[in-house]
Amino acid sequence: MGVERSPTPRASRRSPTLLNLFEKDSKAKTGNSNNSKAAALFGSSNNSKASAGAVAEDGNEDMLSMISYCTFVFTFIDPQESPSQQDVKRLKLAQILSIVKTLKKPLTDQVVKQLVSMIAANLFRPLPWSNFFAAEFPDDEDYNATSPSPAWPHIQLIYDILLRLVLNMDPKALRPFINQTFLTNLLALFQSEDPRERDNLKNVYHRIYSRFTFYRSFMRKSMNDVFLHFVFESERHCGIGELLEIWGTIINGFTVPLKEEHKLFLMRVLIPMHKPKGMLVYHRQLAYCVSQFVHKEPVLGGVIVRGVLRYWPVTNCQKEVLLIGELEELVENIDPEQYRKLALPICTQITKCSNSWNSQVAERALYVWNNEQFVKMASQAMEEVFPVVVEGMEKNLKGHWSRSVRQLTENVKIMLEETDPALYSSCVQQLELRAIEGRQEELRRKERWERIAEMAEEKKHLHVRLSSECILGFSLSEL
After folding, report:
1. Coil, strand, or helix at residue 81?
2. 282 CB contacts (<8 Å, ≥6 apart)?
3. Average pLDDT over residues 259-269
4. Which portions of the chain have biased composition (kind: Low complexity) (predicted)?
5. Please, what's the b/e burial string for 8-45 (b: 16 or more CB within 10 A of its CB; e: otherwise)?
C-alpha cells in the first residue's frame, strides 16, 4: 500500500516548484524531448509493479531535466544573462549533487551519459593566459590581486558532482563515459590560475587514479608529458605543484624493489625539474617526491645528488638556498656506503655556497655543518674534503663583507680544528705555501710581461730608425 500511495504526494510535491523553474528555461522544448526519451528508456519491465516503475521513471525524468538545464554554460559577462537564471542553475546543480551523494542504486547509462556530458560542457573551457612567472614570487601584489572567477560557484559544484560520481559508482560502469579523452581534457585544466580549482581538480584526478586502475599507466604517461613539456619547452604551467602532489602519493605506494619504469621517471623527469627558474613554486612537492625515492631505495641517493649538482643555479640565490636544504635532507637518507663517493662533490658545492657574496646563501651553507649526519659523511673522506673546506673557511675569514658570515665561519673553523687539529694545520700550511708560490708566479709573470714590453719598445724604435734610413736613401738617390 505504501508503494501505491507514493506517486500522488511526489507529483504534488514537484509540480509547483520544478514546473515554475522549467518555465524560465529558454530551452524547455529540448528538456521535454529529453524527458520523453527518458520515459521511454526507463520504463518498468515488471508489470506487477507499475506504480513503483512510474515513480522510478518520474525520478529519472526529473534528473534528466535538471541535467539538460545545467548543460547551458553562462558567460557571466553577457548582459542578456539573467542573474535569476544563474541562481536557478546553481540550485539545480546542488540538487544533482544531493542525488549523487545519496545514491542508493546505480544510475542508468543514459543518465550517466548525460551527466558526464554536462560536466564536460561546464569544465572543459578555454582558460585565460597564465602568468606563471608571477607565481615565482607569491608576495607580488599583482599576483595576489587576481580576481576570482564569477563562474566559480557553478564550477565548484560541478567538481563536487564529478567527485561523488567517481566515488559512488563502479569504475567499470563509468569507463565508457570517463574515457582517455575525458582524462586528457581534465589534465589540461591544471593550467588554471585559480588555486581553488586546481585543489579540487587534484582531488578528483587522484581519486580517478586510485579507483580506475585500468587508466593508471595512461595517467602517469600523460602527467610525465606535461612535466617534460614544462621543463624542456615552455617553463609555463600553473599546476606543476598539484601534479607533483599526486605523484608523491603514487610514489609512496610503489613496491620495493622499484621497477625500471619508475627509476627512469626519476632520472628523466624529476631530476631535470630542478632546472627551471620557476622551481621555487613547486620545490616543496618536488623535494618530497625525490625523498620518497630515496626512502624506497637509498642507493638512488647518489644519482639524485649528482643530478641536483648538475642543475645547480649560477645566479639564482633563492634556488641555491632551497637546494642546499634539499642536499642536507638527502645526506640524511642516502646509503652510508655512498658517503665516501659523494663527500667531495657535496662539500665542494657547499663550500662554494659558503663563499657566496649573498649572505643568505653563505649562512645557509655554513649552517649545514651543524648537521651531525653531514659531518659524519665529510669525515668519511677527510683527506679529500679538508683541503677544499679549509680553503673556503680561510677565504671567508679574510675577505667576506658580512660580519655574521665571518662569525659563522669562525664557529665552523673551530669545529673542524677540534675534529682533526693536525690535518687542519697541515691544510693551512699548504694554503700558505700555495699563496707564496702564487705570489712568486705573479712576480715572474709580471717580469715576463715587462720584458715583452721592453722588447716591443726596442722593436718599435728599430722600425722607426729603419724607416728613416729608407726615406733618407730614397731622397739621396733622387739628387
Report:
1. coil
2. 240, 241, 244, 273
3. 95
4. 1-17
5. eeeeeeeeeeeeebbeebeeeeebeebbeebeeebeee
User: How far is residue 403 from each of residues 281, 324, 361, 412, measured CA to CA in Å?
Assistant: 31, 21, 14, 14
| Helices and strands, number each (H, E), in the chain | 23, 0
pLDDT tens digits along 55-99: 345 567 888 999 999 999 988 888 888 888 889 999 999 999 999
Grid cell 548582459 is found at 79
Nearest CA among 180, 188, 185, 192 for reference residue 219: 180
Residue pair 63/99 in contact (Cβ under 8 Å)? The answer is yes
Between the alpha carbon of residue 183 and those of residues 19, 140, 164, 270, 366, the distances in Å are 36, 33, 16, 22, 47
State how far the Cα of 423 lies from the Cα of 426, in Å rounded to an integer.
5
Q: Cell for 311?
A: 642543475
Distances (CA, A) of 421 to 7, 343, 424, 425, 429: 94, 20, 5, 6, 12
The position carrying cell 585543489 is 199
The string of pLDDT tens digits covering residues 334-343 is 988 999 999 9
For CA atoms 293, 298, 301, 302, the dihedral sign is negative
In one-letter notation, the amino acid at residue 56 is A
- Could you tell me which residues come within 8 angstroms of residue 99 by beta carbon, excluding any fewer than 6 positions away? 63
DSSP string, 229-252: HIIIII---TTHHHHHHHHHHHHH
Q: Is the Cβ–Cβ distance between 245 and 203 less than 8 Å? A: no
Task: Say if residues 294 and 250 touch (Cβ distance below 8 Å).
Answer: no
Classify the phi-psi angles of 148: left when phi > 0, otherwise alpha if psi is within -120 to 50, otherwise beta. Answer: beta
Handedness of CA 225, 226, 227, 228 (dihedral sign): positive
Report residue 254: phi and psi, to 5°: -65, 145
Q: Which residues contact 199 (CB under 8 A, 6 or more apart)?
A: 242
pTM: 0.78
Residue 25 has pLDDT above 50, yes or no: no
d(CA 236, CA 74): 28
Which has the closest alpha carbon to 190: 229, 155, 242, 234? 242
Query: Up-side HSE of residue 419: CA atoms within 13 Å toward CB?
Result: 21
Preceding peptide of 257 cis, ω within 30°:
yes
